[in-house]
């Protein structure tokens, strides 16, 4: 048996490699065009408008509103639906914190259902028991690029008269039953952070088919302005710059290629790790009617069959010089923010008189999500990676898990 580097063996790779987006000449030219023009902001430039139009066309929605990041996009979505003090939104506890904080940002209360073991997304079977007279919406996340179970979620929303918001931060181009995510919900959010499937550095987009929500979102991201210096609603400055939009346009034009590169890496992991599947780990299980875009590759460790804990496995993998992390190490409500209910001011929205209810985020309340968060490890699918990089990553996992097998 091969000795892991952390136990004194030779690492799979001689040194650690980082991966960054490789920008094309066309993308650089688009950004240069903005710099040359001196038109850096959307009110006097053409790129934000163009990017919004092309993004909407790509997805197949009527409207898109560019923003500064995914969090701002989610906040805009929540606000545009007029979800606020006293309201609850049901969501997944296994996601990035912004999924839930975007609800808090508009003074509403996140309520967590549980997730499916295979997709790691919101389990429709756990939603209805969370619905109360205060519930206004379901905020669904397509985690890692794996589309959530939209038919059932939309059915529950229709039956209970709830809005649906999609968090597509990790799922640009993902499809559910042949239709792109970001077109199902009333209003939806995307992120273009550095590591996302397409990037503008920081950046985001809101999408909707509804004219009224579009108009609200447009004002919300622009200081609540209905027309110049005429402010109708409480808004923010969430406006994307022309530089970001120019880069976004270039990235969007080759999103198919960017997603295909990730899929290729994911397929290598699937093939290379299949010998351990069902024994030392669990690989993603794909539903036949989804198109996954592999923002990240989530693997669940079978900790019962290992004689060390996950922290040790991660340390051992780092010592092999491969990039493996934990996304996410705990469910959202296990964070101090939710345990201490430290919100706005004196603790709003939880302690807001409009809410008038007591909520505690108890351990064990989303058992599958908690179990997943304790056993997940996350393999990179970054487009800068070569096939060899992916094979090295898989080999490091095979070596480390086999060594620590009970
Ligand atoms: C699922 C999810 N939601 C929301 C966000 C927030 O996006 P941003 O980082 O662009 O604010 C992210 C980004 O990491 C995310 O992964």
UniProtKB/TrEMBL annotation:
<dbReference type="GO" id="GO:0030170">
    <property type="term" value="F:pyridoxal phosphate binding"/>
</dbReference>
<keyword id="KW-0663">Pyridoxal phosphate</keyword>
<dbReference type="InterPro" id="IPR015421">
    <property type="entry name" value="PyrdxlP-dep_Trfase_major"/>
</dbReference>
<protein>
    <submittedName>
        <fullName>DegT/DnrJ/EryC1/StrS aminotransferase</fullName>
    </submittedName>
</protein>
<dbReference type="Pfam" id="PF01041">
    <property type="entry name" value="DegT_DnrJ_EryC1"/>
</dbReference>
<comment type="similarity">
    <text>Belongs to the DegT/DnrJ/EryC1 family.</text>
</comment>
<keyword id="KW-0032">Aminotransferase</keyword>
<keyword id="KW-0808">Transferase</keyword>
<dbReference type="InterPro" id="IPR015424">
    <property type="entry name" value="PyrdxlP-dep_Trfase"/>
</dbReference>
<dbReference type="InterPro" id="IPR000653">
    <property type="entry name" value="DegT/StrS_aminotransferase"/>
</dbReference>
<dbReference type="GO" id="GO:0008483">
    <property type="term" value="F:transaminase activity"/>
</dbReference>
<dbReference type="InterPro" id="IPR015422">
    <property type="entry name" value="PyrdxlP-dep_Trfase_small"/>
</dbReference>
<dbReference type="GO" id="GO:0000271">
    <property type="term" value="P:polysaccharide biosynthetic process"/>
</dbReference>
């Amino acid at each position: 048996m091969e000795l892991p580097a952390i136990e004194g063996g030779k690492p799979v790779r001689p040194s650690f490699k980082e991966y960054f987006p490789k920008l094309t000449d066309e993308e650089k030219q688009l950004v240069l065009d903005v710099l040359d023009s001196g038109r850096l902001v959307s009110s006097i430039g053409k790129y934000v408008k163009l990017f919004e139009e092309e993004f909407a066309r790509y997805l197949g929605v009527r409207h898109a509103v560019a923003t500064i990041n995914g969090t701002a996009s989610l906040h805009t979505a929540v606000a545009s639906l007029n979800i606020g003090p006293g309201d609850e939104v049901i969501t997944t506890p296994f996601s990035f914190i912004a999924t839930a904080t975007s609800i808090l940002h508009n003074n509403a209360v996140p309520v967590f259902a549980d997730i499916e073991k295979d997709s790691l997304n919101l389990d429709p079977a756990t939603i209805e028991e969370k619905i109360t007279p205060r519930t206004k919406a379901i905020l669904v996340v397509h985690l890692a690029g794996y589309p959530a179970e939209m038919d059932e979620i939309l059915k529950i929303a229709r039956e209970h008269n709830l809005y649906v918001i999609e968090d597509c931060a990790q799922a640009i181009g993902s499809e559910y039953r042949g239709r792109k995510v970001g077109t199902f919900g009333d209003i939806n959010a995307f992120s273009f952070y550095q590591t996302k499937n397409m990037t503008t550095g920081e950046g985001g987009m809101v999408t909707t088919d509804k004219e009224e929500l579009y108009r609200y979102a447009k004002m919300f991201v622009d200081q609540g302005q209905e027309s110049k210096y005429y402010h109708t609603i409480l808004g923010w400055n969430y406006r994307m710059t022309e530089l970001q939009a120019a880069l976004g346009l270039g990235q969007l034009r080759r999103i198919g290629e960017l997603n295909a590169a990730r899929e290729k890496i994911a397929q290598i992991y699937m093939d290379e790790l299949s010998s351990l599947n069902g024994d030392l780990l669990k690989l993603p299980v794909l539903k036949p009617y989804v198109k996954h875009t592999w923002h990240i590759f989530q693997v669940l460790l079978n900790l019962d069959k290992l004689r060390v804990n996950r922290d040790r496995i991660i340390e051992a993998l780092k010592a092999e010089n491969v990039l493996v992390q934990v996304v996410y190490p705990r469910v959202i409500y296990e964070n101090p923010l939710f345990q201490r209910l430290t919100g706005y001011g004196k603790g709003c929205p939880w302690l807001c008189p409009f809410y008038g209810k007591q909520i505690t985020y108890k351990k064990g309340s989303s058992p599958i999500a908690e179990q997943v968060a304790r056993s997940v490890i996350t393999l990179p699918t970054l487009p800068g990676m070569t096939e060899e990089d992916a094979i090295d990553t898989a080999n490091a996992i095979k070596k480390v898990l086999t060594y620590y097998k009970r």
